[in-house]
Amino acid sequence: MAYSIWRCMLNRSATRWHLYRSLSLYNSSHGFNAEEIKNKLAPFTGGSVTLVKGENGIAELCIDNPSRMNAFTGTMMMELEERISDLENWQEGKGLIVYGAKNTFCSGSDLNAVKAISNPKDGILMCMLMQNTLTRLQRLPLISVALVQGKALGGGAELCTACDFRLMTEDSEIRFVHKLMGLVPGWGGATRLIQLVGSRNALKLLSSTLRVHPQYALNIGLADDILSSGTDGPLEKTQTWIASYTKGAAEVNRAVKKVITSGREKLIEDSLRSEKDIFGTVWGGPANMQALEKGTKHN
Ligand SMILES: CC[C@H](C(=O)O)C(=O)SCCNC(=O)CCNC(=O)[C@H](O)C(C)(C)COP(=O)(O)OP(=O)(O)OC[C@H]1O[C@@H](n2cnc3c(N)ncnc32)[C@H](O)[C@@H]1OP(=O)(O)O
């Protein structure tokens, strides 16, 4: 009895933590009106963002607008948000692969939409919409990998930083072209780039608009691996790569990602408390009991 009350309390605090994590950054108290910017973006149609959830707990999210190098039209920005909501509710999920159709990653915002909302007010609203969505992507309790083939430009470079890992094919490049457009990143890419490569390297990439090729990306910590060509295609190789990080029960994989998200985003004391709460959700759970019963060794 005492055990189940204790367990229930732990689960409730974990649920509270999950709700907190999935909250968006901006709401009406920040002057954000999602409907207003969605109405402006809606006329910019074309392309799609598709999601396939595998029975093995690995989902594949495809940015699909090849005639514009997978640029995000207005409707695709909204579809991305819907797909992230879907993933937030997928309790069986363990991992996510984000990739672009037809062997290229993404060339950022659709420039037709950008021109139509080039006034400061709409620009900030679009920025808040995309920051909300990409922050929710980064906070998913799924281990996420961006498969970068071809080009990841502008907002496309920012999108790949919202994943936990980046795999690049040999001929690919990540390029923060914002300065050439008279801009700085606005989808959260600068903040995440600093966390990934440090402020000096981030400054180099944004100020030079350098084409970041795979070996350099690997050296500075932007990429996690280079996929060489072979019999398996890049998507198959990414599926194999992610499998070594997503073995075992979904609840344990999800707890692993949650402790990392908590550690990354919270102050040390809050993070330690969250770690305790998340620990409580798996301690004595089925995967833990099975390992104890089997007498699992790690040699
Ligand atoms: C915060 C994010 C930021 C923002 O929203 O503020 C942005 O993301 S701004 C957008 C940044 N991206 C760009 O500026 C990309 C501009 N395009 C290019 O540099 C090139 O098109 C490139 C390098 C992506 C591909 O070059 P390539 O020679 O391989 O092909 P094409 O140039 O012939 O491109 C094929 C076709 O795609 C259209 N395209 C490419 N990117 C976009 C885009 N972002 N928006 C709209 N359309 C795009 C390009 O115009 C071609 O169309 P076509 O009708 O054949 O001329």
TrEMBL record:
<comment type="function">
    <text>Decarboxylates ethylmalonyl-CoA, a potentially toxic metabolite, to form butyryl-CoA, suggesting it might be involved in metabolite proofreading. Acts preferentially on (S)-ethylmalonyl-CoA but also has some activity on the (R)-isomer. Also has methylmalonyl-CoA decarboxylase activity at lower level.</text>
</comment>
<comment type="similarity">
    <text>Belongs to the enoyl-CoA hydratase/isomerase family.</text>
</comment>
<dbReference type="InterPro" id="IPR029045">
    <property type="entry name" value="ClpP/crotonase-like_dom_sf"/>
</dbReference>
<protein>
    <recommendedName>
        <fullName>Ethylmalonyl-CoA decarboxylase</fullName>
        <ecNumber>4.1.1.94</ecNumber>
    </recommendedName>
</protein>
<keyword id="KW-0963">Cytoplasm</keyword>
<dbReference type="InterPro" id="IPR001753">
    <property type="entry name" value="Enoyl-CoA_hydra/iso"/>
</dbReference>
<dbReference type="GO" id="GO:0004492">
    <property type="term" value="F:methyl/ethyl malonyl-CoA decarboxylase activity"/>
</dbReference>
<keyword id="KW-0456">Lyase</keyword>
<dbReference type="GO" id="GO:0005829">
    <property type="term" value="C:cytosol"/>
</dbReference>
<dbReference type="Pfam" id="PF00378">
    <property type="entry name" value="ECH_1"/>
</dbReference>
<dbReference type="InterPro" id="IPR018376">
    <property type="entry name" value="Enoyl-CoA_hyd/isom_CS"/>
</dbReference>
<dbReference type="GO" id="GO:0006635">
    <property type="term" value="P:fatty acid beta-oxidation"/>
</dbReference>
